[in-house]
What we know:
Number of strands: 4
Distance between the termini: 32 Å
Amino acid sequence: TKAECALWVELRRLPLKGTHFRRQAPFGPFIADFFCHKARLIVEVDGGVHGAPHDALRDVERQQWIESRGYRVMRFSNAEVLANTLRVARTIFAEVDARLR
Length: 101
């Protein structure tokens, strides 16, 4: 999506040495939009379909499965990313920094 592409540009600039994000990375039975193994962090960029009840329930189950393995999931909407990509990236960078301390 446009939002994922915009965020990917910023995530490739991650200012923390020794870290990087992978895009569309397999994680167990799922594909993560963005995945930083070192920080044990997954970032999901959700479109409108994620608001539907069936999809929202599936997202909750997926997040519980991921977090039960010691990873953190951060979710942002397409609209949120497109409205302020840099703010979203800074939020993610702060989480990576905190998780590496």
